[in-house]
Amino acid sequence: MAELWETVASLALALHSDRIEAIAAMVSGIPEFRQYPDTDAAFGPGIDPVLIDKLKKAWANEPDVPGREISSALRAAARTAAMAEAAETIDLVWTGPKTGLIPTRNTEQAIKEVIEHAERDVFIVSYAFHNATTIVESLNTAVARGVAVRILLESSIEQGGAISGDGLGAMRRAVPCSELYIWHPTEKAKGSGGFSASVHAKCAVADSCIAFVTSANLTSAAMERNMELGVLVRGGVTPHRLHSHLRALIQTGTIVAWK
After folding, report:
1. pLDDT per residue over 182-191, tens digit each?
2. How far apart are CA 87 and CA 94, in angstroms?
3. Mean pLDDT of 247-252
4. CA–CA separation, 7 vs 154, rounded Å?
5. For a tag on the chain, would you pick the N or C end, based on fewer CB atoms within 10 A?
6. pLDDT score recorded for residue 100
7. pTM for this entry
8. pLDDT score at 42
9. Which of 127, 169, 161, 121 is nearest to 142 (CA)?
10. Which pLDDT tens digit goes with each residue over 6-45?
11. Phi-psi region for residue 235, left (φ > 0), alpha (ψ -120 to 50) or beta?
C-alpha cells in the first residue's frame, strides 16, 4: 500500500494542481483497478507516461482500492504540495571567508534574486549607497519591466542626516526612475528622544513574498570585501509583514519622499 501512496505523492509534487484535478476526476469514476482504462489518453493530453505507468503499476499491486479513494488522495496530496511550496523557507547568506561547514549564498546574489523576482514592486532599505554596479543594473532592469522601485536611505550630514557623502543623490543618478525616501527629520527626532538616530536597517523585499534581511549596505565594499551576514526568506508571512510595515511608514509620514 505504501508504494501506491508514495506514487500519489510523487504525482502531486511533479504536476500542476489543475492536471492533478483532471487525473483525480478521471480516477474517481473507476470502481477498481480491473476497470482501468485501456489507454492512458483517458487521463488527458500532456501527461508524462512514466508517471502514469508508475501509478498503474502501483495500483495494480492494490487492485481492490477504489478509484474514489485514490482520487481523494491525489487531491489531498496536491493541496499539501501547494502548502509546502508556499511555506516559508530561509537561506543563510554570507559574504566573506568560507569554511565549507554550511551552505551559504552570496549577498549580492541574494539582493539580485529579490529584485529579479519582483513583478509589481520592490522596496530596499540601506544606510549607505556607493557604486554597487550590479545591483543598480538589476534595479534599472526592474524599472524597465514596470516594477515600482522604492528605496529608503539615510540622509547626508549636510541634509540633517548621519552619513557623509550624498548617497541619495548618487542613487537618483544611478536609478533615476526610483522613488527615494528618507526618515522624516521631525519623526526621527521624536522617535530618538533627542539622541542621534539614523536609518540603519538593511533589507529588500519584493511583492510581499520574498525578503532579504542583511547587515550589508548597498556598497561595493559590502558586496565584495566585507564580512556580511543575512537571511533570505521566501514565502510565509515574514515578507508580507515586512513589506506592509515599510508601506505603513510611508502612509504615516514616518518616511517621506526625498526631493
Report:
1. 999 988 887 6
2. 23
3. 94
4. 54
5. C
6. 80
7. 0.70
8. 60
9. 121
10. 999 988 887 888 888 888 988 888 888 888 776 566 666 6
11. left
φ, ψ for residue 117, nearest 5 deg: -75, -25
Tell me how far CA of residue 208 lies from CA of 123, 126, 245, 253, in angstroms. 10, 18, 10, 21
CA distance 98 to 224: 13
Count of CB atoms within 10 A of residue 19's CB? Answer: 19
Take residue 33 and report the three cell numbers written for it: 483497478
- The beta-strand segments (E) located in the chain are 89-95, 121-126, 129-130, 148-153, 179-183, 203-206, 210-214, 218-219, 228-234, 255-257
Q: Which domains are seen in the chain, by residue range?
A: 2-85 (no CATH), 89-257 (3.30.870.10)
Angle 43-47-53 from CA coordinates, rounded to 5°: 80
Sign, CA dihedral 218-220-221-225, equals positive
Please give the Cα distance from 164 to 244 (Å, whole number).
Answer: 30
CA 187/CA 251 separation, integer angstroms: 13
**Up-side HSE of residue 21: CA atoms within 13 Å toward CB?**
5
Q: What is the spatial distance between Cα 78 and Cα 216, in angstroms, rounded to a whole number?
A: 39
Distance CA 233, CA 106 (A): 14
Label the pairing between strands 121-126 and 203-206: antiparallel
